[in-house]
Amino acid sequence: MSSPADSCTGRFAPTPSGALHFGSLLAALASFLDARQRHGHWLVRMEDLDQPRNKPGAQDQILQALTAHGMEWDGPILIQSQHQKSYHEQIHHWVDQGLAYYCDCSRQDLTAQHGVYPGTCRGRHLPPAADHAVRVRVTDEPIAFTDRLQGKISQGLESDIGDFVVRRRDGIIAYQLAVVMDDIAQSVTDIVRGADLLESTPRQLWLYQLLQAPAPAYMHIPLMMARHGQKLSKRLGSAPIHSQAASASLFSALIVLDQQPPATLRGAPVAELIAWGIEHWQPMRLPPSREILQQIEIPE
User: What is the pLDDT of residues 180-199, one digit of tens each?
Assistant: First the structure.
């Protein structure tokens, strides 16, 4: 009989393109509390495949921030760039099977298609080339799942997305493939992440089907939007969280996640805040929306 720890594995998978900001903290904390309350494992993975976006020292900054905020991970950290061979082998296997194909369409070619790939290269049988993307074939059979917070989601990939990229024209492995293969390799059972990735989930579920692997349970939490209406992100230069303000940041994060921490916890040690959060985690208190407006001052 499996133990609770065997039945639940969550993860946090940041991109080392900058220090963690408050929006990243919300996603990390929600994932951590969700796994730990069920006595599960919690893993950390560095999604560093897009090398031009990575910043020197960002990985260490992220790990130090997680530790300072009381979120200790289990086992070794998976570094995506160290697993390039397995991604490429899978792509070649799909091409050989006729499940994927090479594509030389440019962004300009696709501009008029409103985000839906029309299958231009599907029957062209292009040969391998370093500057060709690789697309995986899809059908329009609905891909449906029930998100733990957002409810039932369904999408017809062929009509809404089209055959999608698993290797970009610059040779970089696409997020959709890497994240699925990594979650399978790490036996991840429960994914808690931001609602900006909700629309990617049907594509990922399609890849789980192709890989004949069981899909995890998903919960997409609302994104915290800054007062000017943009989401907090590294790309937009959102302010990083600081270790010296870890207690204040955690208390604020629990408030934004609508966990209703008692006022007596304000200023409490990090370990006490984390312990309270694990014991009292109630994800269904989160609003089933995709965005929430910043209502509090973020600690600096």
Answer: 999 999 999 999 999 999 99
Closest CA to 178 of 93, 106, 85: 85
Task: Band the pLDDT of 4: cuts 50, 70, 90.
Answer: very low
Summarize pLDDT for 71-80 with one digit per residue, the tens.
Answer: 999 999 999 9
pTM metric for this prediction = 0.90
Give residue 14's pLDDT. 95
Q: Any residues with CB less than 8 A from the CB of 299 and at least 6 apart, and which?
A: 241, 242, 245, 248, 249, 252
Residue where the block lists tokens 């931001």: 194
Which domains are present in the chain?
Answer: 4-82+179-293 (3.40.50.620), 84-178 (3.40.50.620)
Asked whether the predicted pLDDT for residue 227 surpasses 90, the reply is no
